[in-house]
Amino acid sequence: MTALFALATSLLWGLADFGGGLLTRRMPALTVVVVSQTIAAAVLGALVVATGGWSEAGPRLWFALAAGLVGPVALLSFYQALALGPMGVVSPLATLSVAVPIGVGLVLGERPGLLQAAGIAVAVLGVVLAGGPQLRGAPVQRQAILLTLVAALGFGTVFALIAEASTTVTGLFLALFVQRLANVVTGGAALYIGMRRGAAALPDEGLPWRSVPALAFVGLADVAANGTYALAAQHGPVTVAAVLASLYPVVTALAARGFLSERLRPVQAAGAGLALVGSVLLATG
């Protein structure tokens, strides 16, 4: 079950990143984050009321709140790093986020077997290569590297926190709701500060309403991915769940290939193949 939930996480995150990337071509990235997360929070609020999730309130919600505060900081750092570029360095480097939950798992006493350890190494290498690493050409600004490392640490911390936020399904709905509320408040505050400084929150023509379904998909896919990752971490080793969930860049690259006809570079194709081999080793190890 761990492998199934973790692979579902990578699929959902990969599609959410692909959709979010398309939307940021039409509106500011922070607006995409705030609107999509607001829609997700509204849906989760309805689920919490319908399932009686409020009864699951307890100390574990602090983990969800912390994840909600860290997540937007990581995402904004990542977007800023991508803006500074080059993307061929920034995107693969962000996969270092997997080191945080793996480290947590090792500290908690998890010891992957030889086959699983090989799977972790192969899968992580595959993910890095699938991002199309740029090994030569444009120079990399030190600020871009620093921001990417901040983003990777933040993403990995969210991985670890959300895995501890609940122990039941109804409690998970509540934890994700709290996380989303924190996302909206943090992102909304950043958006407000940006507007006060003269940054545009919307395109010149206003909010393109035909983009609302896509915004809803991005927010709900992201929320579902957090949920399936929490379930994966609860049903098996965190080390395995984290690595399999980190395959989402492969999904994003394949989605770009399928929907935008973007050609995969040879290194990306090789990375996708290695990621698949690593996931098989992890699932069977």
Automatic annotation (TrEMBL):
Residues 3-130, 144-283 form the EamA domain. Keywords: Membrane, Transmembrane, Transmembrane helix. The lineage of its organism: Bacteria, Bacillati, Actinomycetota, Actinomycetes, Kitasatosporales. Belongs to the EamA transporter family. Coiled coil: none annotated. Pfam families: EamA. The chain crosses the membrane at residues 28-49, 61-82, 113-132, 144-163, 169-193, 214-232, 238-260. SUPFAM superfamilies: Multidrug resistance efflux transporter EmrE. This is EamA family transporter.
